[in-house]
Design a protein that fits this description.
- This is Pirin N-terminal domain-containing protein.
- 0% of the residues lie in helices and 53% in strands.
- It is an all-beta fold.
- The termini are close together.
Amino acid sequence: MDVTVEIRRASARFTERASGRATQHSFSFGNHHDPERLRFGPMVCHDDHLLTAGEGFDTHRHSGVAIVSWVVSGGLAHTGVGDPLVVAPGQVAVLQTGDGVDHPAVEHSEVAAEPRTRFVQVWLATDEPPAPSYDVSTPVLLPGALTEVAAPLPGARFSVARLGIGDTVELPAAGRVHAYVATGALTRSSLAEPLVAGDAFEMVDHPAVSVTAAVPTDLLVWAFGTPSPVE
């Protein structure tokens, strides 16, 4: 069993700037290509977007992915699949784009409804995507604990931990775990020096591990599959 832990610092991510928008890409995207950063399991996109009011992404197409958005601040206006609505902070939106074969490619738009709208968005690639749909939910986060907020594909679980100063939470054991510090900071641990907003753990076949918040912190955690058996 090849157990690995990589610390991905915010400073190592590619930043794309456009009018009214700044995006930090964790993986190759658009004109930015890094052959060593193509995906993490089914995760092919992990973007942190900051938008000014009225800016964002006009109508565009997708297929073959599940798209999960967590709004950190402001408000994100969505049109396309389902009724037009504004996704608020603390809400999670799941867009199933279909396969583009049995279902036409999904068209949608995402535009900031308020100044300084920030959201973290993940794309998961799948060979068997569900039919197109769009769902927004408001999970009840248990203070100091990891709360599952979405399971957009089989074997893919998205959880959020809202931590106070000194709160400790256990990252799950899974085939792959991606833990992203959306806000705040974690204390120094056996795995790394302190992680701050924009930093992430990427773990493969790693046992469950505990992390502690140094300040009020929101931690976004993806878990994929189960650990490989010990040979």
